[in-house]
Amino acid sequence: MKKLSIIVPCYNEQETIDIYLQEMKQVEANMSLEFEYLFVNDGSKDDTLLRLKAAANQYTNVNYISFSRNFGKEAALIAGLEAVTGDLITVMDVDLQDPPELLPEMYEKIQEGYDIIGTRRYNRVGEPMIRSFFAKKFYQIINRISDTEMVDGARDFRLMTRQVVDAVLELTEVNRFSKGIFSWVGFNTYYISYENRERSAGETTWNFWSLFQYSLEGIINFSEAPLIFSTLVGLGSCIISMLAMIYFFVSSLLKQNQVPGWPSLVCIILFLGGLQLFCLGIVGKYIGKIFTEVKKRPNYIIEESHCKSED
Ligand code: UDP
Ligand code: MG
Fold it and tell me: Quick count: other Cβ atoms within 10 Å of Cβ 226?
């Protein structure tokens, strides 16, 4: 029987873990796969770890890894991918926003020969309007400026073959934007759509500012368009100011009693100064990325773990 490894990142999820496992146990009973759960406790401040320990005692196929602090969901994902041994691997949120009942259908598609079965929400019911609006804009922009296609509404919930996971693990970059990475590796992908659902319990840890930063990560990690943009803007303003210089020079030759050009001078200085700062900011973003890459810090630090397959 094939083994399915399920990676579940958890950050302050004490209320949702038990609900999640109850649901999953029903799905598990109806599928001809050996299930293995790997919960990744991402430095939770509540009783998540205690719940995980209890679950690991209760079920033989529940394992966990616990980080020394909160490293973020991306780190939890990569820790999980590195640790699991299954033939098929899936990543799920613990809050049941990734519907477990899709798993049988996803497995069927894998058997048909697909390598990655992704899921996407076809609507965003229950989400603040402004958040949906900016999410949509983000996907429009990123798909225009990056070669890597990112599907609007695609979740991290996907079922993958071992081959795909091995490919993903070969990307050793520290700045991980997994929506991009999973699409970058390629393979035969099939998307299943479903209606958005709200959290089973607890609260989301994402606010508008963190989502904004997350989308910047996506753009900087998967596109060089901002660099090209800043070059073009710089070039454009150079040309414009050269034309202006010629114009002022000629007009001061032709007319006498030229009024000293304070306003235009100040305008030009401000404009160019602002432009330089803006372009420097863009370049700085990329240099910052290079800095974190060169430091080669680990993505996460494990404080304790419980993986039965290791014993
Ligand atoms: N999560 C995590 N580390 C974090 C934030 C979130 O492991 O720093 C986990 C969280 O426990 C959940 C999943 O990532 O299982 C998705 O988080 P959430 O539901 O808050 O995000 P949303 O569904 O609102 O995008
Ligand atoms: Mg959620």
Answer: 18
| C-alpha 105 to ligand 1 mean position (Å) | 24
Pick the ligand that lies closest to the CA of residue 78: 1
User: For the packed helices 208-222 and 129-145, what is the interaxial angle rounded to 10 degrees?
Assistant: 10
The CATH class for the domain spanning 3-207+298-310 reads: alpha beta
Q: How far is the CA of 200 from the centre of ligand 2 (A)?
A: 9
Domain regions of the chain by residue span: 3-207+298-310, 225-295
Per-residue pLDDT of the chain (311 residues; tens, 9 = 90+): 889 999 999 999 988 999 899 989 989 888 888 999 999 999 999 999 999 999 999 998 999 999 999 998 889 999 999 999 989 999 999 988 888 988 999 999 999 989 999 888 877 777 788 888 888 888 888 888 887 778 887 888 999 999 999 998 888 877 778 778 888 888 888 888 887 777 777 777 778 888 888 888 888 888 878 888 888 888 888 788 778 778 877 887 887 666 677 667 777 887 788 788 788 888 888 888 888 888 888 889 988 888 875 44
Closest CA to 38 of 104, 74, 89: 89
Packing angle between helix 225-254 and helix 262-295, nearest 10 degrees?
Answer: 160
Cα(188) to ligand 1 centroid in Å equals 27
Cβ proximity of 53 and 90 under 8 Å: no
- Say yes or no: CB of residue 11 within 6 Å of ligand 1: yes
Ligand number nearest to the C-alpha of 94: 1
Half-sphere CA count of 124, side-chain side, radius 13 A: 14
d(CA 108, CA 93) in angstroms, rounded, equals 21
Give the distance (Å) from ligand 2 centre to CA of residue 286: 30
- From 71, 103, 99, select the one nearest 89 (Cα to Cα): 103
| pTM score, whole prediction | 0.73
Cβ of 97 below 6 Å from ligand 1: yes
